[in-house]
Amino acid sequence: MAMSNSFTRYISSFWKGLWSLLKGMRRTIIIFFRKKTTECYPENRATLVISDRFRGELVMPHDENNQHKCVACGICEMNCPNDSIHIESEMVEDENGKKTKVLRRYNYDLGSCLFCQLCVRGCPHGAIEFRNTFEHAVFTREKLVKQLNREGSTVVKKR
Amino acid sequence: MFDFAVVTEWVDGLLRSWLPESWAVLAEFFLIGLCLLLAYAVIALVLILAERKVCAYFQCRLGPNRVGPWGLTQSVADMFKMLIKELIQVRHVDNFLFNLAPYIVIISSVLAFGCIPYAKGLEIIDFNVGIFFLLAVSSIGIVGILLAGWSSNNKYSLIGAMRSGAQMISYELSIGLSILTMVVFSGSMQLSTIVESQADGWFLFRGHIPAFIAFIVYLIAGTAETNRGPFDLPEADSELTAGYHTEYSGMHFGFFYLAEFLNMFIVASVAATLFLGGWMPLHIPGWEGFNAAMDWIPSIFWFIGKVAVMIFIIMWFKWTFPRLRIDQLLRLEWKYLLPLNLCNLLLMVIVVVFNLHF
User: Fold this and answer.
1) Are residues A56 and A28 in the same domain?
2) Do residues B261 and B52 lie in contact, with contact meaning Cβ atoms separated by under 8 Å?
């Protein structure tokens, strides 16, 4: 009896093994003809889709009047764990004698940024945001230090 | 169908008209050797590219696609890299054997390569024990592998070589028995006769059940014989590093690499010759128009096509199945394939004796 048991086990394990191997081969041949996931990067630039949530670089959006929303409060500079942001500001007195802080230069070092988004989260005016651009390769590190506010731009006046 | 004997006889006549008899024969030897080595190198390059492409497609990738259109010249570039690499002199190795081993491996594979009938009238070594000779020379490769492991003076190489030797010697039995089954069926060991006798139906169809079982067993054993996955035990990165060719560098490593790929080609072409009719077109008895249309396709394309299908199946095995452990590997051979093969041989004898085949 034991003999016949082991013999049937031998036979059945053979067929079971063969069947599972054939199942595996069926699976792999389906995958063989499936669409490939490789992106041919420089060629497919025109059709490349990058998620909007991808953090490529920090930008400061300007509207059509060359105005941004930054009030130079410095929260982003304080939030930044890597000291990538440096804000140069000055006090300006308007015609009513009211003093306001005005942004001169918003310096951002892409090379030391770790894309944590703490600056964007902390910004009370939504003045800065991350873009999904990603082609940032340059030859020197100095070129990675960018000024985010444009020349001659002003802050949007609150109404 | 175009007979390549026309070309070879023309070359023969030309040489004989220019040179005396013995010199003409010598020149022919050189020419054949040159063509053989050239074909060997080209096929190896094509196979390496095919392997990488097929592997990539099984993994949902595209594979090499930067060098040349569709990555076609990638393996040529790899070959040049391999050729200009330094041959590192390893200290404390048995220098003579160490340098000899890759040549033994490559010579055995080139010898086996020369036996295959490629097309009508394109056979290099063809005599009455052709398939037996092919088996014999292809097993010389084991000696090279064992030598490589032994002379490297490295425990990983030695264990890898021993594993490889155990594996190849075990699976040689299965290969031999499944070939024997087909020899029983065809009644000849001469490769050209075997191909000719498949003119009115390939052996895989004419020999039905036993031929089919022999085909499956041959494929499994052939995969194991070439040390390819899922039987690639001699190379185990985590335990044995690269196995028997751990200490080799440059072109000596390249020889092992080439031989491995060419052995796959040889296994595939022997399978094509024995089971799928070699260069013989697909003929169905009675369908005269169909047979004539099939004859119109040149025999070399039939051969290449069949070999390509076989190679694809072997690669499909590699990228589907998980690797076996050494004990599982030997159990598969000795407890499953060998008894199956012996029963199959008996079945084939019965089929032939009672004329049960088509």
Assistant:
1) no
2) no
